[in-house]
Amino acid sequence: MSVPEALRRVRHAHQERPQLPTVPGLHPRHLVRGFVAQMIANAETVSAVRRLVGTVPVKYGADQDTAETAQLVVSELIGNVVRACGDGTVLVVEASATDTGIEVAVHDARGDLLPTRRETVNDDAECGRGLQLLDVLAPGWTVEPSPLGKEIRCQIEGRSGG
In this structure, how many other beta carbons lie within 10 angstroms of the beta carbon of residue 124? Predict the structure, then answer.
């Protein structure tokens, strides 16, 4: 391939990438078929990340229903971190289209605070329902140590061919 052809392909690839927002406290960048964003948790950054999760993977071939489910999953994961650590905590959120759906991950600094699966949650329980929601929407979610603290990774399966 010639140099001019290679440059044309690079320019074309950058033109097809979805626009990433400029929001104070949010620092997104492109990944293959998705994005990663470092953020300081507050209402504005959480809202912007939800929008990114709902749009960027769709631009790379994920279906809209799967993207909406991924938004719910990311909202729950971020909400758990904010409840544990408070507003203003630093998070890293990733979302990418895969051949079968969307993969999301949320990294936070509380590597010492690990979620645990419960068989059942009482109706009057103050916590635990969100993890049951994850079990339904993204069965097989995992928790691993990460350089920041811990990472919760989920695969949201899409419709066939999604």
Answer: 5
Q: How many other β-carbons are positioned within 10 Å of the β-carbon of residue 102?
A: 33
What pairing do the DSSP bridges indicate for beta strands 150-157 and 101-108?
A: antiparallel
Q: Which residues of 37-60 are buried (b: 16+ CB within 10 A; e: fewer)?
A: bbbebbeebbebbbebbbbbbbeb
Q: What is the pLDDT, as a whole number, of residue 113?
A: 79
Distance between CA atoms of 112 and 71, rounded to whole angstroms? Answer: 25
Q: What is the DSSP letter of 23?
A: B
pTM of the full predicted structure? Answer: 0.81
Residue-wise pLDDT for 86-132, tens only, equals 889 999 999 999 999 999 999 999 888 777 665 555 555 555 567 78
Sketch out the chain's domains with CATH numbers: 3-157 (3.30.565.10)
Among 89, 95, 87, 79, which Cα is nearest to 129's? 79
- Chain-centroid distance of CA 53 in Å reads 6
The answer to whether 117 touches 72, Cβ cutoff 8 Å, is no
The per-residue pLDDT for 110 is 84
